[in-house]
Amino acid sequence: MANTIPHILGKGRFEINGSLWMEKDGIRFFGPGPVQLMEYIEETGSINQAAKKMSMSYKKAWEIVNNLNTMTARPLVITATGGEKGGGSFISEEAKQLIRYHKLLRKRFQKFLEKESLLLKKQTAVS
Amino acid sequence: MANTIPHILGKGRFEINGSLWMEKDGIRFFGPGPVQLMEYIEETGSINQAAKKMSMSYKKAWEIVNNLNTMTARPLVITATGGEKGGGSFISEEAKQLIRYHKLLRKRFQKFLEKESLLLKKQTAVS
What we know:
The structure is a homodimer of 127-residue chains. By secondary structure, the first copy, chain A, is α+β, with helices and mostly antiparallel strands. Chain A has one domain: Orthogonal Bundle (Arc Repressor Mutant, subunit A), CATH 1.10.10. The first copy, chain A, contains six helices and four strands, in the order H-E-E-H-H-H-E-H-E-H. Chain A has helices at 5-9, 32-44, 47-53, 58-71, 83-86, 93-126; strands at residues 14-24, 27-30, 77-79, 89-91. In chain A, strands 1-2 form a two-stranded antiparallel sheet. A two-stranded antiparallel sheet of chain A has the order 3-4. In chain A, helix 3 (47-53) crosses helix 4. The A-B interface holds A 3, 5, 7-26, 28, 71-74, 76, 93-94, 97-98, 101, 105, 108-109, 112, 116, 120 and B 3, 5, 7-26, 28, 71-74, 76, 93-94, 97-98, 101, 105, 108-109, 112, 116, 120.
């Protein structure tokens, strides 16, 4: 009796999915969320506007920004003087480079997931 | 000025970590949790005992078992007659095969994570 994984799983669209992040000394500090926030800060020039786009409180966004700047050697988000909503914010060249690295990392992960999902589908097709 | 990822990150142990699961029609249904539960059922012969080992309610464990059996074509956990605590439970050959597949999948994922973390460390070492 054929007793393959596709036999066991049966009908349906089976896929391998997952999530990925960077840790510093075992603590998660960088992933898709912070990247998205930094991209919105770059786009809007404002932590407040970026937070709104993510349906996130200003406090939460500020905590993420502060965490990013504390965890890394070079500041990622730079806030100009003028108070919380007065001064604009922008991201550093280092942040842009980290975002580029992250995009490439995500691509490699996506490739891994697709390869594993394909393996599962191929097995389904032949069973 | 060198502006590499290790320069940006600074001192500390930086690693790539993540989680992985299987989806059926876009719904997450199989990952380390259910695998652990099935292994404990195999070990103890009891859903109740397995639930305790996972600090999980019997209700929650039963829901996972029921979900696993519903999502797959072949039953994974088989409960003998005798009521909730009377009859013993065991896992099928199909469940054992799915667990073996899952372990190999995890190994490949672990390899991916190690490779990415090493890449990050190597970059740190040369910078």
